[in-house]
Specification:
By secondary structure, the chain is of the alpha/beta class. It has 2 domains: about 5-75, Alpha-Beta Plaits, CATH 3.30.70; about 135-280, Vaccinia Virus protein VP39 (Rossmann fold). It has 9 helices and 14 strands. The strands form 3 sheets. A 7-stranded mixed sheet has the order 10-9-8-11-12-14-13. α4 packs parallel to α5 and α8 (about 220-235) runs parallel beside α9 (about 250-260). The longest helix has 16 residues, at about 125-140.
Length: about 280
């Protein structure tokens, strides 16, 4: 029996982004993702629904024909990602069981198996955040961090393993929070991490751990705009926020929301079509 349903469409980049934004505006909102296919500028839009959507209804709402695919009760993500090569940055080596023997002696190894939760380190947004963090850590010391929308916990784990200092990790999806707890134990980071599920800044542990020297928020443009006042509120003066999950044309809207909260842009970078923003609270 299907555990969820995926609605899929392949469109040019701008049409794909318009469809993604419209899908995210649904109430209740499905989980939406958009990925570049590398074929003549085409992008794939996927929306995951708890209940089977109607193709004709989606067509009438959005003017786009979306194919509905039932997702069976199996770890299809792990099956699809099995055998992925490890991800190497300057300080970190993110790997699965099949690459356990390849961790370099001078790298911090993070074992992250494919799962339902987002974040194996391969996506341009996750790697963009890791690279931004590595650059920041060369010039300053962070006392604590918040990984907002943690997925599998890659960013929070990286912070905990590099600094051995406290990090709060939260996700709106309880399965993601559970996976982060599992990964924290697996990677010897659990003593430094407090992990919970919850919606935005209403998650447990966030208020009592604030203010934060560093906030990771690798989510989506719409939620980032909505969460920007909370990001500023929970960020310590002089603290940094690393944001991603943004397409290039979305970045200016997110930056406008940041500036409205008196958050200053330190660096903007792009990787595989995805933008990472590094902000600072004066």
């Amino acid at each position: 029996m299907p555990v969820c349903w995926k609605a899929r469409a392949v469109l040019p980049k701008r049409e794909a982004q318009s469809l993604s934004d419209a899908l995210e505006a649904l109430d209740p909102s499905p989980v939406v993702a958009a990925f570049e296919l590398g074929e003549r500028g085409l992008w794939e839009v996927e929306a995951f629904f708890a209940h089977e959507p109607d193709e004709q209804d989606l067509l009438q709402r959005f003017g786009v024909a979306m194919r509905i695919i039932p997702i069976e009760d199996e770890n299809w993500v792990a099956r699809a990602l099995d055998g992925l090569p490890p991800v190497r940055t300057q300080r970190f080596f993110i790997y699965g069981e099949h690459s356990a023997g390849d961790v370099p002696a001078n790298a911090i190894g993070l074992k992250i198996e494919a799962s339902y939760a987002f974040g194996t380190g391969h996506h341009g947004t996750t790697r963009g955040c890791l690279l931004a963090y590595e650059q920041l850590s060369k010039r300053r010391t962070f006392g604590n961090a918040l990984d907002l929308g943690c997925g599998t916990g890659v960013l929070g784990l990286a912070f905990a393993r590099l600094t051995h200092r406290p990090v709060v990790a939260t996700d709106i999806d309880p399965l993601a929070a559970d996976k982060t707890k599992e990964n924290a134990k697996l990677n010897r980071a659990a003593p430094h991490m407090r992990i919970s599920d919850g919606d935005g800044f209403r998650s447990a542990y966030i208020a009592e751990g604030a203010p934060y020297d560093l906030i990771f928020a690798n989510i989506l443009a719409g939620p980032l705009v909505k969460l920007m006042p909370g990001i500023r509120k929970h960020l310590a003066p002089g603290g940094n926020a690393i944001l991603s999950g943004l397409l290039d044309e979305q970045a200016n809207n997110v930056l406008a929301a940041a500036r409205s909260q008196n958050l200053r842009l330190i660096k903007r970078s792009a990787l595989e079509g995805w933008v990472t923003l590094v902000l600072e609270r004066p």
